[in-house]
Amino acid sequence: MSRRIRYVPPGGALVEVTCRTLQSRQLLRPSPLLREITLGILGRAQKRSGVAIHAFVFLATHYHLLVSVADADQLADFVGYLNSNLAREVGRLYEWKEKVWGRRYQGILVSEEEEAQVERLSYLVRQGCKEGLVSDPLEWPGATSWQAMLDESPLTGTWFDRTAECLVRRKGRAVGDREFTEAECVVLTPLPAWTHLEPEVQRERLRELLDLARAEAKALKRETGREPLGREAVLRQDPYRAAVGSTRSPAPLVHAASRRVRLAYREAYRLFTLAYRRAAEQLRAGLTSVAFPEGCFPPPGPFLRPVAA
Q1: In the predicted structure, residue 307 carries a pLDDT above the cut 80
Q2: What's the pTM?
Q3: pLDDT per residue over 34-79, tens digit each?
Q4: Are residues 124 and 265 in the same domain?
């Protein structure tokens, strides 16, 4: 049982979702078409699962989402639908025959503290700038929520109904590139810690985070003496190439601003895993009536051998 994807506290939680491509290849390299497709899939996944999306950014090698979910099942359904459909479209677009994702997604809890939630939003905003790719988060050509969060512009993409296409092709009829498409919209909601703020105050705080990301890009330029790669160069990158200098840090159980809250989450998770393991041991011992803790994914039951007559 992975601690990063299978536990959501009772009542739901804010979660930062991250998923990386195979070997950090740039298979999500932005293009106008991939941005349109990504927004379409994200909107369809949101509509069918009901998650609240607060912010997102899709880089060339990975993506980040800030979402609120009711439980682990809703999170798994949402991300599973997003990843499976996006992988198929990326394979089609870039003629990639292997798998797209390097491993399962990470879903890390974010505490109810405003400092913790703003810190994670700031981390998402800095994507692309801290790597020296663009000098401004608004310059990133891939799918992001920043412009829509600033001016409430619609986040509209296109859902390509590949099932309908396939059925028609099997009948021997040619299919147009956009014959089976639907418009899908991604609906954004404020951070849970910002729901009490007026919309203009929320936008002002986002502008402050954008300014911090721009300042970081300028500092990186002074330190390295190199200009950011730039929007046009990002669009020309080879999607098959692995990103240079891609680093990963150990994922925490929860993003929290205070030690007290962090320890409280850890204790809740300890009790959850203790109950899970006890139930799993009973299941392995052959008991069929086993009570697993609420909000988990129980393992499949043991094989039931027929009783000899």
Answers
A1: no
A2: 0.92
A3: 999 999 999 999 999 999 999 999 999 999 999 999 999 999 999 9
A4: no
Contact between 126 and 137 under an 8 Å Cβ cutoff? The reply is yes
* Average pLDDT value for residue range 128-139: 96
Beta bridge partners of 254: 109
Distance set, CA 112 to CA 11, 105, 109, 194, 200 (Å): 12, 22, 10, 11, 22
CA distance 301 to 304: 9
Q: What's the pLDDT band for 309 if we cut at 50, 70, 90?
A: low
Contact 60, 22 (CB under 8 A): no
| The last residue of a domain, from among 241, 257, 273 | 257
Q: Distance between CA atoms of 97 and 280, rounded to whole angstroms?
A: 38
Query: Which two structure tokens, joined as six digits, stand for 39?
Result: 């927004």
Could you tell me the CA-to-CA distances from 119 to 104, 110, 112, 260 in Å, in that order? Answer: 24, 10, 12, 17
* Strand blocks (E) in the chain: 13-20, 52-58, 62-69, 106-110, 155-160, 181-186, 254-255
Q: Which pair of structure tokens corresponds to residue 22?
A: 């195979």
Range of the domain at 45: 13-230+252-257
Structure-token pair, residue 87: 């992988």
Q: Do 275 and 217 reside in the same domain of the chain?
A: no
10 Å CB burial of residue 51 (0-12, 13-18, 19+) is buried
Q: Which residues contact 124 (CB under 8 A, 6 or more apart)?
A: 55, 56, 57, 64, 66
